[in-house]
User: Fold this.
Amino acid sequence: MTPTSSSPDGSAHGHDGPPPARLAYDRHTWKEIVHVLSDLPVALVAFVYAVTLVAVGAGLSVTVVGLPVLAGGLAGARVLGRWERARARALLGVRIDEPSPLPRRPGAGLLGRLWSGLKDPVGWRTVLYAFIRLPWAILSFTVTLVGLFVLWPVLPFVVRGLTNADRAMVRALLSPSDELERRIAELESDRGVVVDTAAADLRRIERDLHDGAQARLVALAMDLGLAKEKMAEDPDAAAAMVDEAHGEVKLALRELRDLARGIHPAVLTDRGLDAALSSVASRCTVPVQVTVDMPARPAEAIEGIAYFTVSELLQNVSKHSGARTASVDVWRRDDRLLIQVQDDGRGGASPTGGTGMAGLAERLGAVDGLFVVDSPEGGPTVVTAELPWRDRAPRPGGETARAGTRPGVSSG
Assistant:
């Protein structure tokens, strides 16, 4: 959010700032006088804090503790900035939104959190505010104190001019980050989520291959070796071992197909979301009604995220909901792809409940998507996911892949 706009004289439009200064000493004038006279002790404390922070942080930066001290000091500077914004609201009538908290990416680790704190723009702007503030506070305090005895008739106008400069500094240095800065921070966090998710998927695939198909194929090779040795001396035993090996081959192929389906199912590539989601719904333990209404297929990445989102949600329906029926609706609205999964189960689902929904919310957020869970106790549960629509890249030959389904086709 952006700070409220102000007029050229430094007072803000609407209710952000006092009315025009007058010769009379009204409550706005007295508030401004209190603000200016309290500036010096407040600015002195902030200046000492900022100098100590920079000196200690820079001096210890060659050691292990230097950077954590600096990051902690910047977090403290955020607190100073919050107090200054509160003082400006109370005495100067300047209403400024609080900056967003530092992004906390799950799994970032100690170094990731430390780096996020060190490059906090809100903390650094507060430190700069503390450095600039002290000389101005000395000047404005001196002028106001002298004016109370010498410039009494025109002091309201003098104080208004001084506090307008205060308002300008607060808006410039203590306001929330601009939209570009905020967006950069969000993208950096989302990039980290994507990298972590991809790494976790690779570890899962490696584990499944090592513990599943790979182990089975190793055992199969050993069995075939033993069967080869027995072929001459005991053909019947060798034949039995070959028969067992044949069964192991079938199991290994099934595991590999399941693994390939978990990476990217062939039916999704060949026939689109409707057929792929119908296949997922057929494996759910409760009847699922699937409705897909799209004029064309989205980009492959968006289509894949939509597929795995529904797949994960239907697994939750099977394992945790206690539902009798469920439904999946997928449709396009303007430049967004919307997904809604609903069940008539017991409810109480939460993105923080350990059912994989937190991971889904992170994945969707990484591509500018949304994830909303409405699940009161007693049900029903309605999960709505929203993804940006991006057109599918044309295939060689200039044709774009068709949706592969008719709008509104349903399967139970």
